[in-house]
Amino acid sequence: MLWTLSLALPLISCASKKVMLPMADIQVGQKTISVELADDPAERHQGLMYRSSMDTDHGMLFVYPSSAPRSFWMENTSIPLSIAFLDETGRVLNIEDMTPHDRSGVPSAGSAMYALEMNRGWFDRNGVQVGAVIAGLPGPSEN
Predict the structure, then answer these.
(1) Superfamily of domain 20-135
(2) Is 47 left (phi over 0), alpha (psi -120 to 50) or beta?
(3) Which of 78, 88, 105, 139 could hold 113 in an S-S bridge, CB 3.0 to 4.6 Å?
């Protein structure tokens, strides 16, 4: 029994480690922000679930291989977020506030290739509105 327990402990400690996603800097208005890139199906599914906070001027950028209507929900997500849906040129289609643990879908206002999640209210505080163009976005993923 002691042998089984010693094998289980490393598995538990590995499961609790935060997986670091690739980072990129993008330009939102006059501000440069650092974003984690979620650009494959598993990373996009995980998103910001199971995290308790996010640094100021940091976010998560979801990158898709093509534009399509998108919808996000907040299952297992504790951080109050705002989301901006972006078309393939980086133009903001809509910005929505999202409520922690809410399973209601929050849809894009059109076909989106990107979704940018920031701490709730970040877009308002930084004067980012529908129609703004976000620069420095990575190309679409192949996934």
Answers:
(1) Protein of unknown function DUF192 (2.60.120.1140)
(2) left
(3) 88
Q: How far apart are CA 120 and CA 117, in angstroms?
A: 9
Per-residue model confidence as pLDDT tens digits over 64-84: 999 999 999 999 999 999 999
- The residues spanned by each domain of the chain are 20-135
d(CA 70, CA 61) in angstroms, rounded, equals: 13
Q: Give the DSSP letter string of the chain.
A: -HHHHHHHHHHHHHHHSPPPPPEEEEEETTEEEEEEEE-SHHHHHHTTTT-----TTEEEEEEEEEEEEEEE--TT--S-EEEEEE-TT-BEEEEEEE-TT--S-EEEEEEEEEEEEEETTHHHHTT--TT-BEESPPPPP--
Give the predicted TM-score (pTM) of the model: 0.84
